[in-house]
Structure formats: structure tokens, C-alpha cells
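Human: Note C-alpha cell order:
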Amino acid sequence: MTGVAEKSRAALWPGLIALAVAAGYLIAMLAVEKQTYIISLLAVGIVVVIAAAWFGLFDDVSRAFADHEDALCGFSVVALLAVAAFFHEDHFVLLLVITVLLYVVATLGLNIQFGYAGVLNFAGASFFGIGAYTSAVLNAYTALPHLAVLLVGGLLAALIGSLLLLPVLRTRGHYAAVVTIAFALLFKTFLEVNDVLGGPQGMQVKGMNIFGWSFNDNIEVAGISLSFYMNYFAVSLLLLIGAFIVVRRLERSWIGLNLDALRLDETAASCFGLDVVRWKITAFLIGNFLIGIAGALFGMVGSFVAPNNYTFADSLILVSILLLGGIGNPWGLIVATFIVVIIPEKLQTIQEYRFLLYALLVIGVLLFRPEGLLPRPVRRYFPGWQP
């Protein structure tokens, strides 16, 4: 038994080292401002990743996350708390980290649709916007508790998404994608011509307030000043933890097994008695619910919503995160979201060339790792089993 315990602890170390290196690298990337330092850090990161892949270190890390996922999830939360503590007074950096957390929640919803059920959705930003506009309207015209507003934002995104079910269910593949693309374009037009929702100028969104605690006020703890974004960081982190647990439990359950069968071969699944329509509806509604909740909270964080923030281009950003991280792997989404959100933002002073560098990075990853940075591992029917 002692040998087994030591072997188990040894298998955990690659994951811990990877998390520590990632947290340190993220802090360094967020802390530096000079473009030469940022580009140097990017180059170092790329070299380290290539070297790790060359020596097969990613296999040890993947095995550690597969065998000790619960423990490493806890250490991941600690790493995020360490990042937030390091930048406890920096409004911009904390806003950037919060954006990453909420984008991860949204892409987890897309992951259920794309990665598990194979249902295409190119209107992710539209459902994100539905949640954001819901928080704007309810906070302005009702006294509904703000935690309930988040749930209503998710429910409304799922409800409006249900209007697309009929055309989505009657089409397949690229044709189903066209339906969601059309919805994304119509949604932006609807917001622009609707004066009740502010038209092209958008709407202000009241900040979150829970039990009299205003989230838009800075915090003083033992003489230490904390940015008011720490409030939103805490809620965003809790939301991400909850969404991650739901998605992982869903994947490992019989529901996830049915969704996998649906994605791999819809005709064969139907022949074996699987209700294809039922599971497509389930995946589409649950995914949009998560996207809507993330959008509702993001609306309060940003204090403003406008049609130009929820365009088809923004939907493509969410899809690119999914493809870059590895379709079906929630851990890959976290890594890809940090890359997609933070790197272009840190390279702002290069103007339009930053998008060129970002595009080259994405193309390079897709060329050399077409399944994404962290491909989805083979389903494990007996978690924790060792050969």
C-alpha cells in the first residue's frame, strides 16, 4: 500500500509543477508593460511548450490531470487566487482575468453543444448578449435580487435559443450552422433598431449588489486596499467552479455517453433507440443557459452593454477558443481562453500587427496540433482505475 501511495503522489507532481509554472508565467505576462518584454515572454513560452512536447512531458501532465483531477482542480483555484492577490489593486488586470473566467464559462456551454453533442452554434455571442441585456433591463426596472438576475439571464438565453430548435433540428452540419449565423446577424440588427434597449448606443448596467454589499465600491481589509473588481472576481470564480463541475459530471454520466453517441453517428444512435431530438434539445438548452449566466454577470462587470459587443465576429472568437483548446476538453478551454483574451490585449501598442501575431499563433497551433492544445482524452468508464 505504501508503494501505491508513493506512486500516486509521484504521478501528481507533473500536474502541480505545470500549474505553478503556468501561474508564474501568467503573473509575469500580466505584470510587464514594455512590448519587448512581452514579445520575449511569448517567445520563451513558445520554446518551452515546444520543448515540453518534444520530450513528452505533456503526457505526464495529462496523466496527472486524469488521475488526480479533483486535487488539481483545487490547486488550480489556489493558483487563480494567487494571481488575483498579486494584482489586488490593479483594476485593469483584474478585469482582464474576470473576462477570461466568464469567457471560459461561456465556452463550457459551447463545449456541451459542439464537443459532446455535435450541435453547431455560431451565435454564442448573441446568447451571451441576451444574458447581458437581461441584467441591464432587470437591474434598471425591477428590484429582483441580482443573484436571481443571473439565473433569469441564463433561462432567457435558453428560452430564446429554443426558438432556433425547429430549424436546427430540421437541418444538419453546415446548414444548421447557417441557421445560427443568421440568428447572430438578426440579433445585432434587432438590438440596433430597438429604442427600448438603447438602440445603437446601448444601455447602462447597474453594478451587482448582494445583501446590501455594493460590488462597485473598493474594499479595505486591515489597511490594505483592494480593487472593487475583487468582488466580481470572487463571484466569477465561483460561477466557473460550478459550471466546470456540472460539465465534467455531465460528460461522465450516462447523459454524456448518449451525447457522445449522438455526435459520433447520429443515424446509428437513432437505430439503437436513442432519442436524437431529445438529446439535441438538451445539449442546446444547457449550453445556452451557461452562456446566458456568464453574459448576465459580464454585463454587470462592464457596467454597459451595446450591440457592437455581441456581433458574429465575437461568436467566432468563442468558437476559436473551442478549436484552439481542444473540442471536448474543459481544461483546454481554460488555456485557450487565456491565450485568446490576454495576448492580444497585452500587444495593444503594436496596433493592427498584434492581430497578425495572434493569427499566426493560432494558425501555428492548429497546423502542428490540429486537435487543439489539449485534445480530449479517451473516455474512462472506470475513473481512477489503474492497469
